[in-house]
TrEMBL record:
SUPFAM superfamilies: Pentapeptide repeat-like. This is Pentapeptide repeat family protein. It holds the Pfam family Pentapeptide. InterPro entries: 5peptide_repeat (IPR001646), Pentapeptide-BTB/POZ_domain (IPR051082). It comes from the Archaea.
Length: 234
């Protein structure tokens, strides 16, 4: 089968297939089995991967702009350096990115609503203006990630590593940041209304003083006492 000429691969069984650098723009891979497939630097712009099995697939450097991953399984997939800008990773039953390697990936403007990113590696990833509403990022490596203007409303960031992450103007309302590491994270103008901030690590008064609001946020007593009342009210 010539994988470049054929554009409809719905339901195909291609575990371990070598598709490196292939041109797969607009390809239909709905419900396809691409477990452990090699898609390094493949062009999957606007591809339909709904329900596809990409468990442990190698997508390093792939062009995934605008691709649809709804309900796809990307558990332990390697997406290092991939471009996922404006892609659709919205959870239906669940886009599963648990343990995935997204180090340095471009996810600007991506829709990650309710996505499962538990334990994923997003070190240095670009998530600017992304919709990460209600996503599970528990224990994820988010060191140096760019979350400027991102929607993290209700996200689970418990025990996440946010060292040096940029959360400028990010919406963290009702997010769970318990036991997260916020060392040198930029929280300027971040909305932390109703956020859970108990037992957070390396959170300084200087960081808290720059947020947009901490109204109804749950803080450790020592941090609560440090703050001036103007930072507690909306």
């Amino acid at each position: 089968m010539n994988i470049i000429e054929k554009k409809n691969y719905r339901g195909v069984n291609l575990p371990g297939a070598h598709l490196e650098k292939n041109n797969l723009i607009w390809a239909n891979f709905q419900d396809a089995n691409l477990q452990e497939a090699y898609l390094i630097k493949a062009n999957l712009t606007q591809a339909d991967l709904q329900g596809a099995n990409l468990y442990r697939a190698d997508l390093r450097g792939a062009d995934l702009r605008g691709a649809n991953f709804q309900e796809a399984n990307l558990q332990e997939a390697n997406l290092q350096g991939a471009d996922l800008s404006n892609s659709y990773l919205l959870e239906g039953i669940g886009t599963n990115l648990q343990g995935a390697n997204l180090q340095g990936a471009n996810l600007q403007g991506a829709n990650l609503t309710r996505a499962n990113l538990k334990g994923a590696n997003l070190k240095g990833a670009n998530l600017q203006l992304s919709n990460i509403h209600l996503a599970n990022l528990q224990g994820a490596n988010l060191q140096g990630a760019n979350f400027q203007g991102a929607n993290l409303y209700g996200a689970n960031l418990r025990r996440a590593d946010l060292q040096a992450a940029d959360l400028y103007v990010a919406d963290l309302q009702k997010s769970d940041l318990q036991e997260a590491n916020l060392q040198e994270a930029n929280l300027q103008e971040a909305n932390l209304q109703g956020a859970k901030l108990t037992n957070v690590k390396n959170l300084s008064f200087d960081q808290l003083s720059k947020v947009k609001t901490l109204h109804n946020a749950k803080l450790d007593e020592e941090n609560f006492l440090l703050l001036n009342e103007q930072y507690i009210t909306a």
